Amino acid sequence: MADILDKAQKFADCAHKGQKRKASKEDYINHPIRVAEILKKAGSSEELICAGYLHDVVEDTSYELDDIEKKFGLKVRRLVAAHTEDKTKTWRERKAHTITTVRMADKEVKSLIVADKLDNLSSIENDQRNFGNEVWDFFKAGYDLQQWYYQSIDEHMLDGLPEQKTPEFFMDYRRLVQRVFSS
User: 28-84, pLDDT tens digit by residue?
Assistant: First the structure.
């Protein structure tokens, strides 16, 4: 298991080399590492953890889904593809598609999306401590649209998922959404 996960982390590290997060300017690779760690801690499959490392590679680098499939297989490709946004669409169209995906997806795709959003929103909460409400200025869409997006993910993440099969980090996400958007 460790070999394929190490390979995925190294691939993501190379792909995201030089990229920084929006507000904090931390190395971007820290985000996919944290997403993979959330999935690993939840006992996810090896392929899903790999997808955690690789979830932004196609969207934010020159690599394509075929590259993911060649190196990590069809299942990892499917998981990454399910969460890759089409950058030719508007912000709102892309986010509406993600909301629809999380509503209709299987547990693994839901888990990938929620783990990603959990880490993104955790970073926003942290940046909010440092920058106050100016943190929303770092995004293409401000507070109201971000609130719509993150709350919609929360609203639909459990659709079709039996309660006993819900990973604990889904509830962590729900609590975080409530904290960040409670005002």
Answer: 999 999 999 999 999 999 999 999 999 999 999 999 999 999 999 999 999 999 999
Per-position b or e across 127-144, b if 16+ CB within 10 A of its CB: bbeeeeeebbeeeeeeee
Backbone angles phi, psi at 23, to 5 degrees: -90, -50
Distances (CA, A) of 19 to 2, 12, 67, 156: 25, 11, 20, 31
SS3 84: coil
| DSSP secondary structure letters along 85-101 | --TTS-HHHHHHHHHHH
Residues 55 and 35: beta-carbon distance below 8 Å:
yes
Tell me which residue of 84, 77, 14, 78 sits closest to 56, measured CA to CA.
Answer: 84
pLDDT tens digits for range 95-123: 999 999 999 999 999 999 999 999 999 99
Residues acting as catalytic residues: 59-60
What distance in Å separates the CA atoms of residue 181 and residue 183, rounded to the nearest whole number? 6
Q: How far, in Å, CA of 149 to CA of 41, rounded? A: 25
> What residues have CB less than 8 Å from 142, skipping those under 6 apart?
136
